[in-house]
Fold this protein.
Amino acid sequence: MTRPRLLVLRALGLGDLLAGVPALRALRRSFPGHELVLAAPAELAPAAASTGAVDRLLPASAPGRAVPDTLDWTGPPPDVSVDLHGNGPPSHRLLQTLRPRRLLAFAHPDTPEIEGPRWLPEEHERDRWCRLLEFYGIPADPTDLRLPHPPGPSPAAGAVVLHPGAGAPSRCWPVDRYAAVATALRERGRRVVVTGGPGEDDLVARLAKQARLPDTDLFGGGLPFERLCALVADASAVVSGDTGIAHLAVAHATSSVTLFGPVPPSRWGPPPDPRHRVLWHPGPEGDPHGHRTDPALLRIGTADVLNALDQLRPAP
C-alpha cells in the first residue's frame, strides 16, 4: 500500500524554516503515517533533516520571498497540503494545481473556497503557523523550537559569534559598529569570531580588517549547516541582526543579542528568556527588504550591544 504524503510549502530562508519548526513537528505528530515532504530551497535540506519532522525535501525556491512558479511533484496528488509560505493567493493556487485531497491554509478573499482562519499581520511568526494548525484541529506548541546538539566539535567553542550580514541591507547594522564591539570584547579577553553567508565574504573581510581579527577567527562563505550549528551551539553568545543565525541561537539555547530595525521583535524575536535580549527602538515599520540600513537600526549604538551582552544570563 502506498504511503500517504503530506506536502508543506515553505520555500523561504533558514530563519523562516526554524520559525516554522513548531508547526512542522505538530504536523509530524498528527500525521505519523504520512511521508512529510517540505518544499523549500535545496540548501536547507540539512536544516530540515535536523528538525526530526521532515522525511524529504522537495527543492523549491524563487527570488526574494516570492512563491515558486511550479513544484516538481510526481505521482499521485498529496493527501494533505499545508501552506506555511504566506497568506495567498499565489501560494494557495500553486498547491491547488497539485489537486490535494485536503488543503490547510489561511483564508483569502481571492480563494474563497479555502475556509481557513483569518490572517493577522502583526502576529508573531511562530504563533501564526501554530494557530493555523489549531484551527484545523491539530495541536501545536509554538515553544517547540529546540534542535539536537550537533555531533561534531565547535571550531571556536566559547567564542562570541558576530554575524554582520542579513537577507537585506535594511537589516544590516553597520560594519564599523560590529568592529567596535569586536575590539571592545577582545580587550576584555574574549575570543570573537565572525560568520557570513554565501556572498558575504567582503562584509566579513571588512569587519575583520577594522577589528584586526586573525584569519583563524573568520568563517565566511557560508559554513555547512552542521558546522555552523556546532559553532553556534557552543558559543558564549551570538550577536546579529534579524536573520537566520539568530533563530539558530534560539534553537540551540545559546545566549544572543539580536538587533531589530525595520520589523519589531514582536513579530520575529526570540521567546521570552534571560538568554536572549533584543535591541529595538520603536517607530514606524520599515522595509525588511530595503537597500539601506533602516533608521531604527542605526539608532542602536555600540554601547547598547556591549551592555546587552553584559546583561545576558546563562542557561538555568
Q: What stands out?
A: The chain has a mean pLDDT of 94. DSSP finds twelve helices and eleven strands in the chain. The first helix runs from residue 14 to 19. Residues 196 and 220 are 4 Å apart (CA to CA).
